[in-house]
Amino acid sequence: MTRATQPRQGQVSTVLARRLGGELLRLRDAAGKTQQQAAESINATGTKIVKMERGWVPMRDPDIRVLCEFYGLDDPKVLARLLGLAQLDRERRKSKGWWRGTVGPGAVTEYIAMEDAATRIRNWQSSLIPGLLQIPQYTRALGVADAGWEDPEDIERAVTVKQKRQERLLGERPIQLHAVIWEAALRQEIGGPQVRRAQLQRLLELAELPNVCLQVLPFRTGAHPCITGPFSILSFAEDDALDVVQSDGVTDMVWVENEAESRTYGDLFDRTSRLSLAPCDSVTMVDDLIKEG
Question: What is the pTM of this model?
Answer without folding.
Answer: 0.80
